[in-house]
Design goal:
The structure holds two protein chains of two kinds. In chain A, strand 7 (about 65-70) and strand 8 form a beta hairpin. The model of chain A has no long low-confidence stretch (mean pLDDT about 90). Chain A has no helices and eleven strands. Chain A is mainly beta. By secondary structure, chain B is mostly beta strands. Chain B has no helices and twelve strands. Chain B has strands spanning about 5, 10-15, 20, 25, 30-40, 45-50, 60, 65-70, 75-80, 90-95, 105, 110-114. In chain B, strands 2, 5, 6, 10, 11 and 12 form a six-stranded mixed beta sheet that branches. Chain B has a four-stranded antiparallel beta sheet with strand order 3-9-8-7, with no helix packed on it. In chain B, strands 1-4 form a two-stranded antiparallel ribbon. The termini of chain B are far apart. The mean pLDDT of chain B is about 95. Classes of the chains: A mainly beta, B mainly beta. The interface of A and B includes residues 33, 42, 45 and 92 of A.
């Protein structure tokens, strides 16, 4: 069974540009989570999508947004990029509809975003 | 506040030896799940082991086991017979039944040496 996939592997942008990151969950998983892993800050929760809806977001500005498609894949958009947005962005998926807390989240390999 | 503390930023162990990574957490909730994830240099975050808070029995997965002390809010990971492939960053995390996102510690970098 294929795991969570993410694309691209690396992304280099300049300040002020927009970045789009993509995630495909494990087949059968309906929930997708996005986390930011910045150097020295650990993993911070960004967004949670389930059944096509944004269910919750972490403490990030509105220029971080995304969506979930009918096939449950997801896209994270970061507008007006700032230098501090440079980080590894990890996507995770889980199988329980509604993102039940007890369902394990499985992670993708991440997208390394570098903002110059 | 829901926090996770991993007090050992870096650890080193020789191949075939045993090592224990510590983790403490803080939550006011009574029902939650705890996890250890491993992130090797390849970046892929891999689930190592998980523990349901309502279960007193410590979880075990092959060479990996946990020591879960609910009253102390402690959740340490023991790796037996360490292998070179165990070299990675290890993250402790938990999620509660009123939550949706994992709360992660800052990680412990484990180096296994020959």
């Amino acid at each position: 069974e294929a795991g969570v996939t993410q694309s691209p592997t690396h992304l280099i942008k300049t300040r002020g540009q927009q970045a789009t990151l993509r995630c495909s969950p494990i087949s059968g998983h309906t929930s997708v989570y996005w986390y930011q892993q910045a150097l020295g800050l650990g993993l911070q929760f960004l967004l949670w999508y389930d059944e096509g809806e944004e269910r919750n977001r972490g403490n990030f500005p509105p220029r971080f947004s995304g969506r979930q498609f009918p096939n449950y894949s997801s896209e994270l958009n970061v507008n007006a990029l700032e230098l501090e947005d440079s980080a590894l962005y990890l996507c995770a998926s889980s199988s329980q509809a509604g993102g039940s807390f007890f369902d394990t989240q499985y992670f993708g390999p991440g997208t390394r975003l570098t903002v110059l | 506040a829901q926090t996770v503390t991993q007090s050992q930023p870096e650890m080193s162990v020789q191949e075939a030896e045993t090592v224990t990574l510590s983790c403490t957490y803080d939550t006011s909730e009574n029902n939650y799940y705890l996890f250890w994830y491993k992130q090797p240099p390849s970046r892929q975050m891999i689930l190592v082991i998980r523990q349901e808070a309502y279960k007193q029995q410590n979880a075990t997965e092959n060479r990996f086991s946990v020591n879960f002390q609910k009253a102390a809010k402690s959740f340490s990971l023991k790796i037996s017979d360490s292998q070179l492939g165990d070299t990675a960053m290890y993250f402790c995390a938990f999620i509660t039944n009123s939550g949706y996102a994992l709360n992660f510690g800052k990680g412990t970098s484990l180096l296994v040496t020959p």
